[in-house]
Amino acid sequence: MAHEEDPLGHERASWKPESGLAVAVPDPVKGTELPPHRERLTDKDPATMNRAVRTIYTLFYLSVAGSIWAVIAYMIFPIEDGSMVSIRHNNLFIGLGIALALLAIGIGAIHWSKAVMSDKEHIEPRHATRGRDTTREGAIAVFSVANEESGFGRRTMIRNSLFAALAASVIPGVTLFRGLAPQYDNPAELLRHTMWKAGSRLAHDPSGIPIKASDVTFGSAFHVIPEELAALSHEEGYLDEKAKAIVLLVRMPQETLTEADDRKDWSYDGIVAYSKVCTHVGCPVALYEQQTHHLLCPCHQSQFDVANGAAVIFGPAARPLPQLPITVDDEGYIVARSDFTEPVGPSFWERH
Question: What are the residue boundaries of the Rieske domain, all occurrences included (predicted)?
Fold first, then answer.
C-alpha cells in the first residue's frame, strides 16, 4: 500500500501494481526555497557604490551628448545637394548619435537596477483583490517602498541625469521632422516639369532599355523611365529626376478604354502611360489588377481606373493620375509626345 508524507520537501511512496512494490517518488515541490542571499560588492563597500552611481549618471549624460550630436550632425551634414556622399554622411552620423543616446540610457538603466537598486528578495502572499480604500492605501505604500528601494527620490544625480537623457533622446526625432517641411514657397512648380519631352523613348526601369510597342502585350504592366534618365549619375540628380518621372505603362483592348476627346491621341493601340506618383501623398502606385484595370496605391489604398483616365474610384487621393501622352517613332519604339501637362504628385502641393 502506498504512503506519502507532508508536501514540504519529504519523499512520497506510491504503489506500483505491476511490481507489487512501493517505490519512492521525489516530491515536485522540494527544492523551491530561496537560496541564501549574497550581498553585492556595492552593498558592502560604500566606495564601490559611489563609483557605480557615478558610472550611471555619466552614462545618462553621455546619452544627452549623443542626442545633441545627432542634432548637430543633421545641420553640419545636409543632404540638400542630393549627392550620395552627403546622404551617407548624414545617415551615418545622425544614426551614431541616436544609437549612442539610446544605448547609453539602456546600459545605465540596467547597471542601476543591478548595482544600486535594492537587492533583497521578497515574497508576496496572494490575496483576494477587491476595490476598497485599503487597497488604494496599499498601492501608495508600494510606490513609497519602491521609491525608497530604488533610490529614485534620494539619488538626485541619477534621477536628474535620467530625466535629462530621456528628454534629450526625443530631440533628434523632432529635428528630423524638419526635413518634411516644405522647402519652397510653391513646391508644385518643381513637379510641373520632368525629364519627359517630345521624342523621349520609354525605357525599362532601371535598365534604360527602350520599349517597342510590339513588346507590350495585353494585360502587361511595365515600370518605365525616360531613356535619358538611365545615363544620369546619382551626383547629377538621378534620384530626384526619377522620383518625378516614373511611369507605369499598360496595354488593354482598345474598346475597353474610355478617353476624353482631347486625349484620344495620347494612347497608342490600347497602350496608355500614367505617372506612378500617387496624387495623395506621393507613394509609388504600382499594383495593377489586369481584370479590373485598377491601380492600387499600397500606402493608403487609393485605387485608380486605368481604363477611364486613371480616375479615382476609392481612397483619399483627390485627383486622377497624370497621363503621359505617347506615340511610336519610325522604329516602332514608344516615345513621349510631350511632358506631363499637369504637376505630378500630391494634390495638396498645388494649393498656394
Answer: 269-335
User: Which residues, 6 or more positions from 10, have their beta carbon under 8 angstroms from its beta carbon?
Assistant: 27, 30
247-251: strand order across its sheet: 202-204, 221-226, 247-251, 271-275
Residue range 95-104, pLDDT digits in tens: 999 999 999 9
- Number of domains comprising the chain: 3
Supply 118's cell numbers: 535594492
Question: For residue 227, what is the domain's CATH number?
Answer: 2.102.10.10
How many residues are present in the chain?
Answer: 352
- DSSP class of residue 316 equals S
State the residue range of the domain holding 287. 188-350
Residue 304 CA to residue 290 CA, distance in Å, equals 13
Helix axes 156-169, 84-115, angle to 10 degrees: 150
What distance in Å separates the CA atoms of residue 223 and residue 216, rounded to the nearest whole number? 12
Nearest to 245 by CA among 101, 156, 345, 149: 345
Q: Which three cell numbers stand for residue 160?
A: 536628474
Across the chain, mean pLDDT equals 83
| Domain end residue (candidates: 145, 180, 215) | 180
Model confidence pLDDT, tens digit, residues 143-188: 888 877 777 777 788 888 888 888 898 888 888 877 766 666 666 6
Same domain, 96 and 238: no
Q: Same structural domain for residues 76 and 162?
A: yes
Three cell numbers written together for 8: 514540504
Alpha helices in the chain (DSSP H): 41-44, 46-76, 84-115, 133-150, 156-169, 171-176, 188-191, 238-245
Q: Are 123 and 201 in contact (CB under 8 A)?
A: no
Name the phi and psi angles at 125, rounded to 5: -70, 145
Cell of 247: 511611369
Q: How confident is the model at residue 35 (pLDDT cuts 50, 70, 90)?
A: confident
Mark whether 199 and 327 lie in a shared domain: yes
